[in-house]
Structures
1.
Amino acid sequence: LDYAAGAVGNPSSPHEEGRKTKKMLEDARTVIARLLEVQSDDVIFTSGATESNALAILGIAKVGDHVLYLSSAHASVVENMKLLSERGVDIEALPIKDGRVDCEKLKGIVRPKTKLVAMDAVCGETGVVWNTREVAHIVSKHPSSILLHVDASQAPLTEKMTRAHFGADMLTLDASKVGTTRGIGVLVAHRTIPRNALY
């Protein structure tokens, strides 16, 4: 009973504690949206970067689609690529040259069935800052609709934290990487991306 009395209310409940919690949640969504220069309804709360990456990757690609990814990315990206492959999605590693995505080669490997490019903003192990905006430019010029997902979990200390800065359609963030509460993450997904694709 002591725990129940002090626990945060369910934001979906109509009682007073639920309403208070819902307001706190929506206030947090508004603050994050302002910081990232997006609309509030672009902000989807998750349990962390792993879940955000899974939503972005597994929700978009279907059987027969083509997906490109950074082979040095976090395990939550790489493991989900393996799942996609098992489901009949054609996965392919992004071409790398001198610590950058080789955009000249990228132009030659995107194709009509390419649906998603997934990459980090910053490598958590080496500190390499990837050329996400150059990649975004390439995929945005392709006639098929290709989404760019950027895991920016490791980027807050070095990069401007807006989706536009990375050129991303979807952006992953993790609270624990900026010294706040573990178990909280965000997937920023442009509102034109169908929400039923992400759940």
2.
Amino acid sequence: TGAAITPGAATLLARLVGRDLWVLASEIEKLTLYTEGRRIEDADVRALTSAAREANIFELVDAVFDADHARAESRLEFLLRGGESPTGIIVMLHRQLRLILLCQELLRHGVRDRALQQRLGLAWEFQARRVQDQARRFTRRQLEDAYRRLVAADRAIKTGLYDGDLALNMLIVEIGTRAPVH
């Protein structure tokens, strides 16, 4: 593409994106278009690549609740290497768990389609479908167990019982082991 990038921006991009060459190529293309021929700077990387990191949080959440250990561990490593805090990851897992529980309850009361999406507060239809799929695969008991494990992991991190990386890896395994296989 002929784009130029500062060494600092290249290092930052590598740290944020990790080893996924597909994502890296996509981010470089996006940065090249954004900078319109000028050299890519650190600020450009920070401005555009944060969206890729946010998407990876949702990939982690999906992998955990899909019991896909390999993908969950890969996304967790990527996020932690990229500077995401263990507490931030716990918050996102908690949010998804809450959405799944709420979706189960709404489905039980006959709420469907656009009304379900609105009640869940989700902007996109595909998000609502994803939560519905997860809600149908888990029993309420499994979700309550996952919630207790999430709270325990959060407490373990905040009290220093475990460091964030270890507590999150344990949580991923514990929730995933109890998740239904699809």
3.
Amino acid sequence: KGTLVFPVLEPFQVGEVRRKAIALAEGLAFRSTEAGKVAIVVTEAAANLVKHGGGGQILLQALCNGEVRGLEVLALDRGPGIANLQEAFRDGYSTGGSPGNGLGAMRRLSALFEIHSVPGGGTALLASLWSARALGPTPHRPLEIGGLCVPHAGEEVCGDAWDAHQDPTRSRVLLVDGLGHGPGAAEAVREAIRVFREHPAASPAALIELMHRALHGSRGAA
């Protein structure tokens, strides 16, 4: 179903995104205890956007690992950032007058928890939670790759795209930016993605040349 995007600019929106996350988790067969963990993580992430980030977005996406279902939570803001991440994870630490258990609790409840913050440049927080623990070891991958494309305001399609291909010896990642935005840009990036997928053994230089030829007559892309 793709990624669900929720703006979180006001306190009342924290409850809204929590309810949406719980409903999504229940639809993924999360038990009540597991859905409760989702509620805590999403509530803390959304509340932090309002209290510390000047507002931002929560993005939710379903995950699948065989028969096991999960939920990925991404919180983005362009606020002041976190000056000392290590200190911010300490239980009891708070800059907003709260109990200060947020980041530490979120990390303990999540199967995967990552956070990147730039003072003056905002914060990105990623958490994944699963309906049950996957049996056996997870497959080895040279890199854990993920990306996100969101349409320009007022558009239904995104004029940017990404793709990746991995084998035992190397990882290739494509980032493509269609000129402008909207359907014309989306058409150009789809063509670039097609070329990337159809030539998994081509060198970067050869791929660029192939894309250049394929995009002739389109709006073009970088």
4.
Amino acid sequence: DREIIQVTPRTSFITLTQDRPDYLAEAIASVEAQTDSDWEHLVYDNGSSDSRVIDVLRAAKVRNPDRFFFVSPGVRGPVIPALYWNILIGLSRGRYVTILDDDNRKHVGFLEQMVETLEADATIDATTCGWGYIDEIGEKREDRQDCHWNLATNISNLYLSNTIDSNAFVVRREVFDRAGQFNAEMPACEDWHFAIRLTRACRVKHLADVFVDHREHPGTRSYRISRA
């Protein structure tokens, strides 16, 4: 019998989506544009009522049949991102994992720079980067400065404020065995909670570059909280 060799991707992108077809298409396109093409992208559709979401997912599957995968049970579950992130982490095959919210984008050099740092030093467990702000239509917000809070991140700072955006890190897959996955019992701040545990259990390298576009629009939790 011939030996079957299964090739696994270097990095897994994981995305939770719900009723944001246009933003989702941009997020997927930002993955497809990566200069490091050794990736897979896993998307969980949390019961979208907009049929265009499935159209976007199916089109991405056609373009990337061997490295784009989606789960769409057709039933809307609880709005707990950690629950679905954990499901996708369990399905992922990559040596590294990174979150991409369905309304955000990764810059084309995100993987190349973030993963290269991890590949060059086996003692580094995760990398983070800076992020910039875009508006509802994807234009850079000139009134908002790029965010580099992660450069000053330590345990003391993390206890006071969430200084690492969940979209701005890449984590070695085995780190989840040490730090644990996301706490699905938390309805909010699950990424903050994970960042604290990650920093306590692992070595994190902070890069000064901006490699993530963070979209601000009325549908985000942070947008609603900031205006409450």
